[in-house]
Design goal:
This protein is about 45% helix and about 15% strand. By secondary structure, it is an alpha/beta fold. The chain folds into 3 domains: about 1-110 and about 215-250, D-Maltodextrin-Binding Protein, domain 2 (3-Layer(aba) Sandwich), CATH 3.40.190.10; about 115-215, Periplasmic binding protein-like II (D-Maltodextrin-Binding Protein, domain 2, 3-Layer(aba) Sandwich), CATH 3.40.190.10; about 260-440, Lysozyme (Orthogonal Bundle), CATH 1.10.530.10. The strands form 3 sheets. Strands 1, 4, 5, 6, 7, 10 and 11 form a 7-stranded mixed sheet that branches. Helix 4 links the parallel strand 8 and strand 9 (about 160-165). Helix 10 crosses helix 11 (about 290-305). The radius of gyration is 25 Å and the shape is globular.
């Protein structure tokens, strides 16, 4: 039955290739032709968030390419089992779905990344160390993925090796089932492992399957010559000028900080402690406009959701406000959970407003959170150092390397603000990013506002903080 289905799929693909691809789409031009991008849902490709905005590594890269061309971009998000047919059929400018150049007669761009396929198991299972140990095993993979193709190739030489292709959900959904029969082994992209460990801390990689593979954009059988040249030039440039590294940092730059015990403890606190505080975080989002899960991530990093937390420097409460900052924010009792959360949310917005207009999201938020830790004066001092070093003071990618310099005499001795533990600010922000990722996967967004909360979103009249 599988052979008949595969033969039918091949016939369909060949038919579409022969009849459906009438040549390249017109070159994208402003107001006339958007850049048409074929993709699929996934953490590395295209993910629509709770506000219907999209993100993802491939999404950000193709959006940057469209901006360079001066055109809009339209994404065609294709189910995994339809991706091969769609790629063969043409009618797109780029296929950007974490793909390798394995499609016959389909031209590819130069590589964006290189990766491998790895086998992962639950940490409690006996690890496999040799390919011949796969005999008689069943491996799960996402349908239509390169990983599924890798396993099909192994089946040719390994007796009784079986493949189950999963068509529902994404790789993180599949990994949630790892270790629960019948899902004992999953093959996944190696670039996903550290990201996935944030959500499934019990997974462990055991075997590398296959050779290193490039990740490319597919341009179709008959790409527009000008578009092909522009895509090749774009990829060459972003490799050289740091653009690729900056976009990659948005998704991978923070995922190596938390340990397995850190993540497991946080997941436990989500179940035990967060329910008591959730309503206060919801109220804070209504007042500030900041995602309640980001505020919860900040609060956890600051106090582990302990309303009575106190440091040796006398910062106190769930959001660990100084006495001076609390007074300026109108927080009368730092140990009151609601007051502390609302005050902390307002303070984050004040810090964001202090940054110049050219600082874009998400960098604006990450820089503001660094300022939350070391104060706006020290943050501005670090931005001044960045400009002296000819690096971009408006991006977190560069500033996370500059902030630790605030602890070195060579730099802080020349600053009015003096010494600061800038390295700690970097750790704080990176941890918050990981906690926020975990919360967005485990907690729903704020439901529609049903009650009026006092205060104007994002504003706190009459408050001024020293720069």
């Amino acid at each position: 039955m599988r052979e008949i289905k595969s033969l039918f799929s091949l016939i369909v693909i060949l038919f579409v290739t022969a009849c459906g691809d009438g040549g390249p789409l017109p070159f994208p031009t402003p107001g006339k032709q958007d850049l048409i991008v074929v993709t699929r849902a996934g953490p590395l490709t295209y993910m629509a968030d709770d506000t219907a905005s999209a993100n993802g590594l491939e999404h950000d890269l193709t959006t940057a390419f469209a901006e360079e061309l001066g055109v809009g971009v339209k994404y065609q998000v294709v189910p995994p089992n339809e991706l091969e047919e769609k790629i063969a059929g043409g009618a797109y400018h780029l296929a950007a779905a974490w793909l390798s150049p394995v499609y016959e007669n389909i031209l590819a761009s130069p590589p964006l990344f290189n990766t491998r396929d790895i086998l992962v198991q639950h940490e409690a299972s006996l690890p496999l160390t040799h390919l011949d140990q796969l005999t008689g095993k069943t491996i799960h993979a996402m349908a239509g993925s390169r990983q599924a193709a890798t396993v099909r190739k192994l089946i040719e030489t390994i007796p009784d090796l079986k493949l189950v292709e999963v068509e529902q959900g994404d790789i993180l959904d599949l990994l949630d089932s790892l270790g629960k029969p019948p899902v004992n082994y999953v093959v996944m992209d190696a670039r996903m492992e550290e990201l996935a460990n944030q959500f499934v801390p019990s997974l462990r990689s055991s075997l590398t399957l296959g050779e290193s593979a490039p990740i490319v954009w597919l341009l179709g059988a008959h790409p527009n010559p000008e578009l092909k040249a522009r895509a090749e030039a774009f990829i060459k440039r972003i490799h050289q000028d740091g653009t690729l590294a900056r976009i990659e940092e948005r998704y991978f730059g923070h995922v190596r900080r938390l340990t397995q015990p850190d993540i497991e403890k946080f997941l436990g606190e989500i179940e035990k402690t967060l329910p008591k505080l959730r309503k206060h975080f919801h109220s804070a989002e209504q007042i500030s406009g900041i995602d309640w899960r980001l505020l919860a991530a900040l609060a956890y990093q600051e106090s582990h959701w302990d309303s009575f937390a106190t440091s040796y420097t006398n910062v106190r409460g769930l959001m660990m406000l100084t006495e001076e900052t609390a007074d300026r924010l109108g927080v009368s009792n730092r140990l009151d959970a609601r007051e502390s959360i609302l005050g902390g949310a307002r303070y984050v917005n004040i810090l964001k407003d202090m940054l110049p207009a050219e600082v874009q999201e998400p960098d604006r938020t990450w820089l503001a959170l660094a300022g939350y830790n070391i104060g706006p004066g020290h943050l501005n001092a670090a931005r001044s150092i960045a400009r002296q070093l000819n690096v971009d003071a408006n991006t977190w990618y560069d500033m996370k390397r500059v902030l630790p310099l605030l602890a070195k005499p060579k730099y802080y001795s020349r600053l009015k603000s003096g010494r600061a533990r800038g390295g700690e600010a970097v750790i704080l922000v990176e941890n918050i990013r990981s906690y926020y990722d975990i919360l967005t996967r485990n907690e729903p967004p704020q439901p529609p506002f049903t009650a009026k909360v006092e205060g104007t979103p994002g504003k706190m009249p009459g408050i001024k903080l020293k720069r």
